[in-house]
Give the backbone structure.
Amino acid sequence: MTDRSNGYEAIADRFVAARSAIGSDVVRDWAATLPAGAAIVDIGCGSGWPVATTLTAAGHRVAGIDPSPTLLAAFRRALPHADAACEAVEDSRFFDRRFDAAVAIGLLFLLPEPAQAALIARVGQVLKPGGRFLFGAPRIACTWRDTLTGRTSRSLGETAYRGLLADAGLHLSANYRDNGGNDYGMAVAGQGGDAYDRTVS
Ligand SMILES: C[S@@+](CC[C@H](N)C(=O)[O-])C[C@H]1O[C@@H](n2cnc3c(N)ncnc32)[C@H](O)[C@@H]1O
């Protein structure tokens, strides 16, 4: 069977063992900016810990998408009441609904450049007006080797992501860096101008 998980199904158990809580503070802070009980789609949700569990603990409703059967099974165990789809983002119908927010942590840079652009465009379509998108990716354009899968990861860099977000009707409104040195961008649907720009590190 074709692997749609960019190597993550093969190393799922090792990923779960290695995943730390780093970044949970960024997710928690972002969760506090969302409307109460927000509907959030977690793209590349993995096991659900710590991203979806943090969002759920903040009172939001999370739906997860991930093509790794092992990781999605762990997500279903962690969040038995959440909607979950075992599929690649490239194939996803996003549960045929729209969301208040979307999150994609540790995913964007696993994908080839056209698939990264397509993901961002799709997020623009599934977010409600004013919806928010939190994504993880280095602010500088770079490539590196994923230590778990051995595959090449590729960040397009902030300038390119800003452009792709704008094409999708989203405005990059903030940058975050967690205490592990990982970068995140936060974008808002339908926001123009730079009035909301700030950097938090
Ligand atoms: C580095 S892990 C991050 C998991 C989770 N977001 C977290 O922060 O713990 C990358 C995840 O993306 C998933 N993934 C890989 N390719 C994908 C694709 N094409 N569509 C959706 N998810 C994908 C993997 O199965 C894996 O769960």
